[in-house]
Design brief:
This protein has 458 residues and is mainly beta. It has a single domain, classed as Outer membrane protein transport protein (OMPP1/FadL/TodX) (Porin, Beta Barrel), CATH 2.40.160.60. 9% of the residues lie in helices and 50% in strands. The protein is built from six helices and 21 strands. A 14-stranded antiparallel β-barrel has the order 1-2-3-5-6-8-9-12-13-16-17-18-19-21. The longest helix has 12 residues.
């Protein structure tokens, strides 16, 4: 008999409000894998085959048929990245004039929450709901850093609603599927080198504006957009197969999601008062509407879980179709303002993980895991300071404590070792004199701490 009058709506609303702070992307690319705390403890090994709480809604909806009764899981993750940049000869478009400015750490800490609810409909079918943030990104640099023409603020937030159904097809096979309704909000900013733009005009304009690359001729472009009027839609499906009482194989697929955003571009001008009338007189850099489209990648996971005595051994291989991210193009309503284009040319990537759960006592599970997360960024020329990632090696530890028949708690910690990586990225502006090149090296690492409450309602 249920003892509590639980308001599901209030928990979902709280999760949505919290998701507004989701930021740093710490799977490869700008994906977020931080979807529960127990998986954090074993580097998400075996997640499509073995997820012993309601968060299986995300990893494999077929796994709902392995759960008993109605359950809720609520998790939060604190992600703390560092990403130190060392300048190694960044120049203006002439390839000779060095860009002045500081060497900055663009990493931003963030909290990322998740909410999951699973309820049996009958002995062979369950309903599940997940609210989470599968993609996110936040990097922020000082306004005067050496890469300011490439990026200052990059902030992508997503909120995904994922209602799902799981079905037990036989004693060995379960299947599941769901739809994904995704909201996205993005903010981008960078400095504008009006000195180089005026130099392109030549003559009196070049003289009036002043020196290219100078703080006196730098302005700022700020772009904000969302897809609230045209939400992204996708689907996910999964299967679990119980090879035996101790071995389970899981396969899960999540589809691409097209994100179409629209919003506004706001431009501020340089300290030199001569700049604004020159650039706006040419019809450029006036406040305007904008639109952009990004295809978020598909993902396929194959997992195995094998129990031997008190150990459950776990392994996973996940493919992500990042080749869908070929460019970031921003189109403006102002017909005089050329598109802003960043060629990405990303590759599909793989993530491999192994780990285990150890049943230390009836109330305590200990776990650990390792993972290799490949970067989809193909080269230093395609690496940008908005997403300066490289291959990541995960080392993870965690535990579950069962406090009662109704409540259990998960804690997980991961340290991500990230290879030092070069960047040699040239801007692709329609005004050639503004095509500065950022050349240097990033040194990065990430710490992630996750906590989760699981509630078996009946």
């Amino acid at each position: 008999m249920r003892k509590f009058n639980f308001n599901y709506g209030s928990f979902i609303l709280a999760a949505l409000i919290s998701l507004g702070s989701a930021g740093s992307a710490h799977a490869a690319g700008f994906a977020l894998i931080e979807m529960n705390a127990n998986g954090q403890g074993n580097a998400y090994a075996g997640a499509a085959a073995y997820t012993p709480n309601a968060s299986t809604v995300y990893f494999n909806p077929a796994g709902m048929m392995q759960l008993e009764g109605e359950q809720i899981s609520i998790a939060s993750h604190y992600i703390d990245p560092t990403s130190d940049f060392e300048n190694k000869g960044s120049t203006l478009a002439d390839g000779i004039t060095p860009i002045g400015g500081s060497e900055d750490d663009g990493g931003e800490s963030a909290f990322v929450p998740n909410f999951y609810w699973v309820r049996p409909l009958d002995d062979n079918m369950s309903f599940g709901l997940g609210v989470n943030s599968p993609f996110g990104l936040k990097t922020e640099y000082e306004d005067d850093w050496v890469g300011r023409y490439h990026a200052i603020l990059s902030d992508l937030k997503t909120v995904n609603f994922n209602p799902s159904i799981g079905y037990r097809a036989s004693d060995k096979v379960s299947i599941g599927g769901g739809i994904n309704v995704m909201l996205a909000d993005v903010e981008l900013s960078s400095a504008v080198d009006y000195g180089s733009i005026c130099a392109f005009f030549g003559g009196a304009a070049a003289v009036a504006c002043g020196t290219p690359g100078s703080s006196l001729t730098d302005g700022l472009g700020e772009l904000e957009a969302d897809n609230y009027d045209d939400v992204g839609l996708g689907f996910n499906i999964g299967l679990t197969y119980m090879v035996s009482d101790v071995t389970t194989i899981g396969v899960a697929y999540r589809s691409q999601v097209d994100i179409d955003v629209d919003g506004d571009a706001d431009f501020s001008y340089a300290a030199n008062p001569a700049v604004e009338p020159i650039v706006t007189g040419a019809g450029l850099f006036t406040d305007t509407g904008l639109r952009a489209k990004v295809t978020l990648p598909a993902k396929l996971s194959v997992s195995i879980a094998h129990r031997i005595d008190k150990f459950t051994w776990l392994a996973d291989a996940t493919w992500t179709g990042w080749s869908s991210f070929d460019e970031l193009r921003i189109e403006y309503d102002n017909p005089n303002q050329p598109d802003t284009v960043t060629t990405e040319d990303w590759d599909d990537s793989w993530r491999y993980s192994v780990g285990f759960d150890y049943q230390a006592t009836d109330a305590l599970v200990l776990r650990a895991g390792l993972a290799l997360d490949e970067t989809p960024i193909p080269s230093s020329e395609r690496r940008t300071p908005r997403i300066p990632g490289d291959d990541r090696t995960w080392v993870s530890l965690g535990l579950t404590y069962v406090a009662s028949d109704a409540f259990s708690f998960d804690v997980g910690y991961s340290h991500l070792f990230i290879d030092d990586v070069d960047i040699d990225n040239t801007l692709e502006n329609a005004v050639p004199s503004t095509n500065a090149t950022l050349t240097g090296e990033y040194e990065a690492e990430v710490d992630i701490l996750s906590a989760q409450l699981n509630w078996k309602i009946d």
